[in-house]
Each structure stands twice: as C-alpha cells, then as structure tokens.
Amino acid sequence: RNSSSLDYLCYTIICTLLTLAAFSPASNQYPINVLVMNNVQQTPNKTYSTYVVYRGILLGALKRLQDSDADFEFTYTEDFNYGPYLHSVNGLAGNNIAQTYWELLVKTTDGNITRPDVGIGCYIPNANDQIILRYTTW
Ligand SMILES: *[C@@H]1O[C@H](CO)[C@@H](O)[C@H](O)[C@H]1NC(C)=O
Ligand SMILES: *[C@@H]1O[C@H](CO)[C@@H](O)[C@H](O)[C@H]1NC(C)=O
Q1: Comparing 26 with 123, which gets the higher pLDDT?
Q2: Across residues 13-20, what is the average pLDDT?
C-alpha cells in the first residue's frame, strides 16, 4: 500500500551503506611522516603526518599534507626528462648560485635511510616510512 515509504526506507539503507563504505575507517590509508630538515642553516626540524593511499605517489601525499596543514607548503617544478622535483619547502627554495637543493631521503621502518632513485612524482612510499626533505648543498 504505502510503497513510497518502503522505497524511501530502501533508499535510506542503501545510502547509509554507501556512506559507510566511502568513509570506512582508513582502509586505504597508509600513514607516513614527513621530516623537514635543514643542513645549511640552523633551523629546527619539523615533522608532519599524512598518508598515502594504496600504491599512491609521494607527490599526492605532499599535496594532501599541504591542504590539511597550514604549516607545510611546497612547490615543485616539472623537469622535462625527470618529472616533478622539489623546488621549495616552507618558503625556502633551492638556489643554483648557493648550490642548495631539497634532497629526498626515506627512512624505512627498519631504520635504514636511503635516497630513492626516483623523484616525488614516482616514489611510492610504504606505510610508516619517514620521508626526509633535507635542504642541503651539492
Ligand atoms: C634533525 O633530525 C636529524 C635526524 O633525526 C638529526 O640528525 C638532527 O640533529 C636534527 N636537527 C635538529 C636541528 O634538531
Ligand atoms: C638495512 O641496512 C642494513 C645494514 O646496512 C642491511 O643489512 C639491510 O639489508 C637493510 N635493509 C633493507 C630493507 O634494505
């Protein structure tokens, strides 16, 4: 008799399930830390938390961090051959005359620190990696 209220009930249940699926707790989120440090000047280290999605690239995680944390900002430039690379972090840019740049390092959960052989556009962090953005000289 009152099929429209039944329809509405079904609609409500389906929407609720879809909403729960979309916001199910962090099933596809792999936490990482970002450590910003400076080898050139004496400035305090800063650590931030964000996450990557499954097989997500570091560049996406850095953009997510920038959107969610007013204390973190970065810029990158697009190299024709090598893709995006870090230009500035928190307002400090690499400088050809001073021979400074932002180096990308990764500290894995076993404590090893490695320098990825790819840039921020290709590097795929693992859960609980510490991404180290280190301002240094070349
Ligand atoms: C920043 O962190 C690095 C690595 O943990 C450490 O070696 C360095 O001493 C720290 N620098 C400062 C200024 O705290
Ligand atoms: C971490 O470093 C140690 C010592 O250099 C090495 O034996 C080990 O294989 C490294 N682990 C990974 C996952 O690379």
Answers
A1: 123
A2: 59
* Average pLDDT score over residue span 22-28: 61
Given the CA of residue 42, which atom of ligand 1 is nearest to it? 13
Contacts of 84 (CB under 8 A, 6+ apart): 59, 76, 77, 78, 119, 120, 121
Q: Which domains does the chain have, with CATH numbers?
A: 28-137 (2.170.130.30)
Ligand 2 pocket by C-beta < 6 Å: which residues?
110, 112
Q: pLDDT digit string (tens) for 80-94?
A: 888 898 999 999 999
> How many Å lie between the centroid of ligand 1 and the Cα of residue 116?
20
CA of 112 to the centre of ligand 2 (A): 6
Predicted confidence (pLDDT) at residue 15 exceeds the cutoff of 80 = no
Dist CA 119 CA 138 (whole Å)? 17
- Ligand 2: distance of its center to the CA of 82 in Å? 27
